[in-house]
């Protein structure tokens, strides 16, 4: 697994790999290591696309106009809402085409037209999406464009100085296009190339699958024979794995080692920096191992995008591929698309469609309408997301703010999983070559935020001894408000939603603040996360990831929460006679308001933050940990 140095090392968890294996990093070889560490939090190098040549084979997507657009989203909610007449009347992709997509006459005409121009077309069953693949020279000729300089225009099919000569009966069916401009040098991506694993580091508080199982009342479901058998968990991944690692882990955890339970589906799409694609990805390894151990008899299917970094097109294609197969009853994602400030920068430079959010919402709502339970990690930078303020040469200029909107990680059509810290008592770190920071005592489960470590730093001289840990001391569970959308109906009126308690734990200069007063306020939008579980690497998990002399490195972050929740959806779905759980959010906010709720909110206002938001006593929701932790045995009993 690769992570970026400085700010990217801290934020890559919420940007691309939302959490990973946490290890100490090498001390910066600088005369002022603290200054260097803080300076690096404010900018990032960038990757620019490698120019494509005439005979390079590449791909892009054409999205056709859906019919009854608003009705589609309403039905996605209706089929997941108890007492609604449409409840559990899930649709297949073909059903979606019949009701909302373009007819086969249109998709077949597109396919035939593109074939005449030497381009292959994958038509998705929903009648909305086409993935087009071919040599650059044929794409350039067909669309009157140079893919290396392509930009968006008002015409959805125009990317050069003149419009392509595409028959109007086809052109008029187009909603937007994604991927055509991904080779333009203005389509920049943050630089990520630092090694993950460092020898000799460990956390004695790390555990295995039973940590999650025991903490969140899973064992009674196993005792009833609910093990995920007959279900498939989909893992969205931007790197492949060595399957032997997963099977070794599953054997260690007494999960099924049936050689047919783990499969990989390659996702069609473009390759961004293909030379950096990992075949032994630490994040994917962690997700697969824990999905397959929490649901010990479920199948696990990796939807692998052969690109190291998510573009909007590649992320959407991963979901579209999984939904088109309709095999997985739950999906987990530990990668993100970064915040809207970065994506809007690409829109401003005309290398990303302004309709990207509408398309993303549509695809994620398609999961809901098909009865697929989708989970995404909420991020590991706490409430303070990184905003891209601009680009200077080959550097993105960054700022940390509670106002950073996340169009994917906090999407209203996906269940966002936050993180907690389990009780523990001991010295940090407990092993390795670093000096101990001191003793920490956590008496009860709390929202994950590293503010509990800050008193051990004490003064600048102490901090100067561990400058490489500065980024790690500014981590926590992602959570807050996504103002790209109004508050979803399932959150409206829920006690704690759109109100908050908070403390300014981090100054405007990224300095630690001790003893900050409690503040109260209101806000709006999609509140996130929805649910939480143990994610703090100090109380995290061990992964079998044999690399560079290490076999069992520790892991944590909210991205280990998402696959375990997806696994629990598979476990509950495996109960005989049960229909797919579907989109969780439509039900869980109702269940959380009952007197005997399966959710346990973490509502303390002290020792319970994600570096800004705290709990709200007397409510069922707070932005540090959502509805809180889950009693899965109770959830299985109450969930309709």
From TrEMBL:
GO BP annotations listed: proteolysis
Coiled coil: none
Keyword presence, Calcium: yes
Species of provenance: Lentilactobacillus sunkii DSM 19904
Ligase is among the record's keywords: no
Cofactor(s) this protein requires: Ca(2+)
Protein name: Pro-kumamolisin, activation domain protein
UniProtKB keywords: Calcium, Hydrolase, Metal-binding, Protease, Serine protease, Signal, Zymogen
InterPro entries assigned: Peptidase_S8/S53_dom_sf, S53_propep, Sedolisin_dom, Tripeptidyl-peptidase_I
PANTHER family noted in UniProt: PROTEASE S8 TRIPEPTIDYL PEPTIDASE I CLN2, TRIPEPTIDYL-PEPTIDASE 1
GO molecular function, one term: serine-type endopeptidase activity
Signal sequence segment: 1-29
Peptidase S53 domain: residues covered: 212-640
Lineage, top ranks: Bacteria, Bacillati, Bacillota, Bacilli, Lactobacillales
């Amino acid at each position: 697994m690769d992570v970026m140095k400085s700010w990217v090392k801290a934020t890559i968890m919420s940007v691309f790999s939302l959490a990973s294996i946490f290890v100490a990093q090498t001390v910066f070889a600088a005369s002022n290591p603290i200054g260097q560490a803080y300076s690096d939090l404010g900018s990032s190098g960038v990757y620019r696309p490698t120019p494509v040549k005439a005979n390079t084979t590449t791909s892009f997507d054409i999205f056709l106009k859906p019919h009854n657009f608003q009705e589609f989203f309403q039905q996605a909610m209706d089929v997941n809402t108890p007492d609604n007449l449409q409840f559990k009347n899930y649709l297949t992709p073909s059903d979606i085409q019949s009701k909302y997509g373009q007819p086969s006459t249109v998709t077949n005409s597109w396919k035939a037209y593109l074939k005449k121009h030497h381009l292959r077309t994958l038509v998705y069953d929903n009648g909305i999406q086409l993935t087009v693949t071919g040599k650059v020279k044929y794409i350039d000729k067909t669309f009157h464009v140079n893919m290396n300089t392509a930009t968006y225009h008002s015409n959805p099919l125009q990317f050069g100085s003149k419009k392509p000569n595409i028959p109007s009966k086809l052109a008029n069916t187009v909603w937007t296009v994604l991927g055509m401009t991904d080779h333009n040098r203005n389509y920049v991506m943050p630089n990520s190339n630092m090694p993950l694993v460092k020898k000799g580091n460990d956390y004695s508080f790390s555990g295995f699958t039973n940590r999650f199982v025991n903490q969140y009342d899973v064992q009674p479901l196993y005792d009833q024979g609910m093990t995920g058998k007959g279900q498939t968990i989909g893992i969205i991944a931007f790197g492949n794995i060595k399957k032997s690692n997963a099977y070794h882990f599953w054997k260690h955890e007494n999960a099924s080692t049936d050689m047919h339970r783990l499969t990989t589906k390659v996702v069609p799409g473009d390759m961004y920096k293909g030379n950096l694609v990992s075949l032994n990805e630490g994040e994917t390894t962690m997700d697969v191992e824990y999905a397959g151990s929490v649901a010990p008899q479920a199948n696990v299917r990796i939807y692998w995008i052969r690109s190291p970094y998510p573009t909007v097109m590649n992320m959407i294609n991963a979901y579209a591929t999984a939904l088109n197969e309709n095999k997985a009853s739950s999906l987990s994602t530990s990668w993100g698309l970064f915040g809207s400030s970065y994506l809007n920068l690409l829109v401003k430079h005309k290398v990303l469609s302004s309709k990207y959010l509408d398309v993303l919402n549509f695809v994620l709502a398609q999961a809901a309408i098909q009865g697929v339970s989708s989970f995404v990690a909420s991020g590991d930078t706490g409430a303070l997301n990184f905003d891209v303020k601009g680009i200077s040469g080959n550097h993105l200029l960054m700022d940390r703010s509670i106002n950073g909107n996340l169009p994917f990680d906090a999407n209203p059509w996906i269940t966002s999983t936050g993180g907690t810290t389990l009780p523990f008592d001991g010295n940090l770190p407990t092993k390795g070559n670093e000096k101990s920071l001191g003793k920490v005592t956590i008496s009860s489960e709390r929202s994950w935020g590293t503010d509990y470590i800050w008193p051990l730093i004490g003064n600048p001289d102490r901090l100067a001894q561990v400058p490489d840990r500065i980024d790690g001391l500014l981590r926590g569970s992602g959570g807050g408000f996504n103002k790209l959308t109004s508050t979803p109906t399932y959150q409206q009126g829920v006690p704690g939603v759109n109100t908050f308690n908070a403390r300014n734990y981090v100054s405007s200069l990224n300095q630690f603040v001790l003893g900050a007063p409690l503040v109260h306020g209101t806000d709006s939008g999609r509140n996130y996360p929805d649910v939480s579980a143990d994610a703090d690497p100090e109380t995290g998990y061990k992964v079998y990831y044999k690399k560079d002399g290490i076999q069992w490195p520790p892991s944590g972050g909210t991205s280990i929460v998402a696959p375990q929740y997806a696994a629990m959806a598979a476990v509950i779905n495996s109960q005989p006679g049960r229909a797919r759980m579907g989109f969780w959010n439509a039900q869980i906010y109702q269940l959380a308001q009952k007197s005997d709720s399966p959710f346990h909110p973490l509502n303390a206002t002290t020792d319970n933050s994600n570096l800004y938001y705290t709990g709200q006593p007397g409510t069922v929701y707070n932005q540090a940990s959502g509805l809180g932790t889950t009693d899965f045995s109770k959830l299985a009993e109450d969930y309709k």
